[in-house]
Design goal:
The complex is a heterodimer. By secondary structure, chain A is mainly alpha-helical. In chain A, strand 1 and strand 2 form a beta hairpin. Chain A is rod-shaped. Chain A starts with 9 loop residues before the first helix and ends in a 10-residue tail after the last helix. By secondary structure, chain B is of the alpha+beta class. Chain B has a three-stranded antiparallel sheet with strand order 1-3-2. The relative contact order of chain B is 0.15. Classes of the chains: A mainly alpha, B alpha+beta.
Chain lengths: ~350, ~110
Amino acid sequence: MSDTHFLARPDVTAFVEEVRRLLADLDDETRDELLGGLEADLTDQVTDGAELGDPATYAAELRSAAGLPERRRRLRGRLSSGSPVSLLDRARSRFDRTVARPHVAPAWEVVAALRPAWWVLRAWIAVTALDVAAGGWEPVSLVPSLGVPGLGALLLVVGTAVSALIGMGRLWPGTGERSSAARFTLLALNGVAVLAPLTWSIPMPAYLGSSAWDGGYNDYTQGYMDAQRQHKGLELDGSRVHNLFAYDADGRPVRGIRLVDQDGNPVTVRPEDSTTGRGDARRTGCPAWNGDTATYELFPLPEASLDRGLCDTRAEAATARRPPFPLASLPPLEGGRRQAGPDQGKSGR
Amino acid sequence: MDTTQLLRGVLDLAVLAVVEREDGYGYDVLRRLRGGGLTEVGDASVYGTLRRLYAAGALTSYVVPSDEGPHRKYYGITPAGRDQLAGQAKEWTSFADTVSSLLPRSTGASS
């Protein structure tokens, strides 16, 4: 059929060598098997007017038709079997399959539509985290103050824009074809955004400045927070007690009192709870001092106007003023007289 | 439809059929496939398929030396290859009949 006598052509030889180089990852036997006779075949083809194409494409087609793995795949697969990237890929594809299920897909559509809300929320979390990290304890609020008027609001606007741009894929690490570094950065950032608020103490009344939040939701949150920090605060019907004001039997205000429970434990307000209001209206309760120990048990707590943090130094406490009583007086109560006067304590009974 | 996609599924069958008719080296097999109507088949696909069928035991190979140039590698069919050819030919016929029966009577009328 064909003449077996022909001369090798240098271009064909070079082409075959290039293909051989591209198959270097295969073992010798497989490679030789794949390339055996190729030079002769290609020489025939070229003699018949065919053109040699791209060696890389050619090698890939040869591999594919021979049922051998692709070069890059194989390399990458070997490097990353069980690596975080492949783990991420598997998790992602499993997630995609899950949300594509018929009974999950409609719910996921709703969740996906809420993504912009998450972009805003995580921006708020980022700015609030900055607020919490930057200063002393501060009630978590809708517009983080950062101790400088207007700064919190400004950062919130900038943060929301950045977060949305990342979410929309316009800004690294959210852009287009994501590198593994970008993917892990994004994952880590979102993870921190989810977890960071769990480390905050969130007093619900200060949260939105509304007591509408003090219901069942609050109980749960407080319960959680209480479990987080052993020091439980003082509560009345589920609302935080910020300060205490005493009146005597005749309904007259009394200053400088200390209370203990039936076991003799002092009734104290948690330092974080002593803060109320925002901005110019922010008031922080100041402790009394037992040596160097601050104690929040002498009521009513004097109040200082601090931009942020707690009233926990004597210098700050020195600026404190007596808070006005919430009610100038209370109606006198009968039977008050009998109990009035000094008591001798338990031994006196 | 992209005929290269279709080809991928039946290239084994086509190559076996060509070699069964007569032993041949790579380019020879390629020319006979193209001459038989599979004009779009790629040379590397055919060569790769030949190597794969050889590795699977469906083909044998022998080298015909040349004094002046590279050796030619011929392929011939093995008994296992004949079995595979017969089996796949049957599958193909049945499959092609099934698909044909699904098509509208006037072929080429695609909606």
